[in-house]
Amino acid sequence: MRVAVIGAGLTGLTCARLLGEYADVKVFESESAGGLLSSYYNSERGYWIEKFYHHCFRNDEHLIELIRDLRLSGKLVWRIARTGVAVDGRIYPLNTPFEILRYPYMRLMDKVRLARFTLRAKKRNFIDFDDVGVVEGIRDELGDELLNDFFLPLLKSKFGENYERVSYAWLLARVSIRSNRRYSGEELGYLKGGFQQLVERLAEGVDIAFSKAAIAKAGEKFAVMGERFDAVVYTAPLPALDRELRRAAGLPETKYQSSVCALIGAEEGITEDIYWINLKNPSIFGAIIEHTNFMDFEDYGEHVIYLASYSTPEGQLFNTSNDKLEKLYMKELERFGIGSESINWIRVFKARFSGPIYEKGYLRKITDYRTRVKGFYVAGMTSRHNYPERSMNGSIRSGIEVAKVVMEDFGLV
Q: What residues contact 116, with CB distance under 8 A and at least 6 apart?
């Protein structure tokens, strides 16, 4: 039996690794192995770093198990990541109760409401709020001040101009599932030396063709780049799939956002110890992620900083040239005390379809692994394990489960 896997991200590579024990599997990838987890190699200083920021959580069971299976457990480290918010050029840490109490841009009563909201979210069934808009939900539960002064900058940073489309269920689920707070910050994990190691080991022995794959039905089989296959597992973004095949397979029209991320090597950092900084004031980027305030500076020999933005495939930000974006990012960094003379290098990376927008009614758009086209399977960002937000763990779990479905359908187990 021959299986074509479209996409060499974590879902595709995990699926191919499992199916490869029972079938002849070929993976087609139009860009780089790893997908959103692909990395940039700094040849001058000799290190790999993800093009888009990544970290993991203690409850990422499938990711941690895969790391163990690939003999990388010794590289997995857990650190407390401190967060803060930038307001009018000043950065306020928001980690310990004392820091939160000192934050001047929120009333004490609103701080109490926010704490209660966080605790309640862990006990609620977020599915019940799937058809409620996130702006409406926050306003009704927490009031206009918390909505405007705290949540709106975060939502705009995460979803850009699409923030009003987002479901309240997404926010409740994310707070409930992703919060792993400690007294001084949030505990996060990272693979020392970079997740490139995970991608490389996962891809070992996998037949990968680096080309954009056109899929066509050929009788009871499928034709992919002139080759015949008994089944196809599609793990790439749904908007990149041929519209006719998408309709025949009964797949939903899902709106995606784009990621635009500047990766910077600099001689100095912005803060001494804050990993993640959200920006309250409007800017070309919505968050600053100081990677070397999370991982050891000595591993890189310079400060590594991400400037994260979200747009849409048709949005102005995504379609601005990288050269122009580099200049805009560098100009904005001057507000935080980082002049051009301190920047060793800058690279801008874009992902046209970085993830679905978790809009109202999104739970009805989650895709099953089997589709209406026999032998054509879909897994990845729109699978149920990548809700409430895409993650490495959800992508790996989706790859495992779709492989099991294919094996069951074709009697391979």
A: none
pLDDT tens string 22-80: 999 999 999 999 999 999 999 999 999 999 999 999 999 999 999 999 999 999 999 99
Residue type, 318: F
DSSP state at residue 241: S
State the burial class of residue 231 (Cβ atoms within 10 Å of its Cβ: 0-12, 13-18, 19+).
buried
Give me the numbers of helices (H) and strands (E) for the chain, helices first please: 12, 19
3-state secondary structure of 371: coil
Burial code (b: 16+ CB inside 10 Å, e: under 16) for 268-287 equals ebbbebbbbbbbbeebbbbb
φ/ψ (deg, to 5) at 339: -85, 165
Cα 210 from Cα 208, distance rounded (Å): 6
Tens of pLDDT along 243-289? Answer: 999 999 999 999 999 999 999 999 999 999 999 999 988 888 999 99
pLDDT of residue 184: 64
User: What are 120's two structure tokens?
Assistant: 């309640």
The pTM for the full model equals 0.94
Residues in the chain: 413
Q: 371 to each of 170, 178, 215, 222, how far by Cα in Å?
A: 25, 30, 15, 14
Question: 2-41+195-253+366-409: what CATH class?
Answer: alpha beta
The secondary structure of residue 357, as a DSSP letter, is -
